[in-house]
Amino acid sequence: MSRRHHHHRRPLLATLAAFAVLAGTAAAAPAAPAAPRTAPAAATPLTTLDDTYYRSAIGKTGTQLKSALHSIISVQSKISYSQVWDALKTTDQDPANSSNVILIYSGRSEPKSDNGGSVGQWNREHVWAKSHGDFGTATGPGTDIHHLRPEDVTVNSIRGNKDFDNGGSPVSGAPGNYTDSDSFEPRDAAKGDVARMILYMAVRYEGDDAFADLEPNERVNNGSAPNIGRLSVLKQWSQEDPPDTFEKRRNDVIFDQYQHNRNPFIDHPEWVESIW
Ligand SMILES: [Ca+2]
Ligand SMILES: [Ca+2]
Ligand SMILES: [Ca+2]
User: Which residues does residue 124 pair with via DSSP β-bridges, in sequence order?
Assistant: First the structure.
């Protein structure tokens, strides 16, 4: 497919090395007073997270890693579906215009105040479609802002509850997105975000908290089954579109200000391949 030509991979080892240098510098300096949690402070370095938040997961692989991450990220605060509106206005704020949010599929910058259910407004897209496992909008997976994003009302309706896969016809109002009868392909810049949100949900929800055990699979047309496909395509998307500043900031804001849990695949994209 010639339209997808962003197959370069960010040199992960170089990124990790940069974090290590930063962490080493910080460790050698006298302890600074902790920044207030609400301040837009620099993100916690990855090596610090590995020594603290992810400590029980480090060194594990496969199902043991998934189990350790499930225990870690299940410790969280929860918000109501009505509180999701305001949370998204913070997590998805346009870096170039603090009055706006960025719509995940359309890529458009829209006034925060233009949220609602009418044509032309933005609403709350469940990237893990809420019918897949039938969790609705009760406080839980349906209000977990790690997979909720602002989207144009009409485009959100076009995505509906389709599984994710490559292919289809262009989506009106959302350049670079494609859809057919059984699947949806987001624009290139959203592909990795979508993959990491789906895989977060799979690790967070394991059927032990009154909600379904969510898992990715290789199918489309999953209907109301607690599954989203196609896993092989999501893994490819995660590789092609590594976490950028917007996605990492979003993870930090959710951790610092709302749910106090993290999406491990934004911090450690290589854990996708370790688990799946
Ligand atoms: Ca399809
Ligand atoms: Ca992205
Ligand atoms: Ca699961």
Answer: 150
How remote is the CA of residue 193 from the centroid of ligand 2, in Å? Answer: 5
Sequence-ordered strand ranges (E) for 112-211 = 122-126, 148-152, 163-164, 169-171, 174-179, 183-185
How confident is the model over 192-207, as pLDDT tens digits?
Answer: 999 999 999 999 999 9
Q: Which H or E run includes 220?
A: none
Please give the backbone phi and psi of residue 101, each rounded to the nearest 5 degrees, phi first. Answer: -115, 160
Q: Which ligand is nearest to the CA of 244?
A: 2
Residue spans of the domains in the chain: they are 78-261
Determine the distance separating the centroid of ligand 3 and the alpha carbon of 66, expressed in angstroms.
9
Q: Of 85, 37, 104, which is closest to residue 253 (Cα–Cα)?
A: 37
Q: At CA 260, angle to CA 79 and CA 268, rounded to 5?
A: 125
Å from CA of 226 to ligand 3 middle: 9
CA of 161 to the centre of ligand 1 (A): 13
Output the pTM of the full model: 0.86
Positive or negative torsion for Cα 13, 18, 24, 30: negative
In the block, which residue shows the tokens 């987001």? 186
For residue 179, report the distance from its CA to the centre of ligand 1, in Å.
7
- Ligand closest to Cα of 202 equals 3
